[in-house]
Design goal:
about 90 residues, mainly alpha, homotetramer
């Protein structure tokens, strides 16, 4: 991935946020504050997903479509399935 | 929270999944596999959110409504805001 | 419902927007414009859902919780299921 | 669009469902039933969005990428923006 380092930094920050959520729950933080923080982590995770998707479309999928043939067909179908899965989980 | 231990176990598992995602990206795993795993983590996070919301509604909100008065009003408004935030991030 | 007239007006506008989407597709509008308009209608529908949820929580659920007893339990469980369904479809 | 007739039929059905929602609200149907039906309409709308996206990717975007040049770049960027908007509204 082209933006691999940025994605790795984001994932490291999300890992820390999830650990922080555990501390909030262990320390009996107010539920609404836990929910607000959960929503922030969920959003951060979606942004990583969107960056991976962008990178994948701009490289693997475009390269396959430019080369043409059955692999292009396959890569586009696979991309659309990934978009569907990505969108459904929200 | 009543189900605190279960929530803490889920959060610990999610933390491990996020770390695993970092390893996948570092090892140049196929983007579509990264997206599939991201969707799984996102779903697991949503389930934690829903459990916190359930616990909060069954305890803090119900207790406040049973006691009545201005605090009941406030707790219900706060709950609805949390639901809105929770639903929007997906 | 307390805000029934406002909800009915919103639904009438959404019905018109869906009809407009049909015209766009029939007239071979550019796909990206169709997607943008679909996203707007989907958002408008979510807002109606959120208003119905707010009204329901502020009336049926609060009344049941104030009266107490097994019906309160049932109404809160039903509310949480509705929130789950509402959040999942996005 | 290749599957234009199927999309038009789906939109006509959704228009009828939105009209039905108006009748439910006017007839004071139980809020939870209104929410359940709203979730069904929202899901149906998402399916239309996904079909439009699929059609667009398989035709406009693939054609542009096969031809190459700056238009390919533009079509892929536009597709990713549409996916982002589509995913955010859920």
């Amino acid at each position: 991935m082209e933006n691999r380092d940025a994605i790795l930094r984001r994932l490291a920050r999300i890992e820390g946020q999830v650990r922080g959520l555990g501390r909030m729950v262990a320390d009996e933080a107010y539920c609404v504050d836990v929910l607000t923080q959960l929503a922030a982590v969920s959003k951060a995770l979606d942004r990583v997903g969107f960056e991976v998707l962008t990178d994948h479309t701009n490289h693997c999928v475009r390269d396959a479509v430019e080369r043409g043939g059955p692999e292009a067909q396959e890569r586009v179908a696979e991309l659309l399935e990934a978009v569907e899965r990505f969108a459904r989980t929200r």
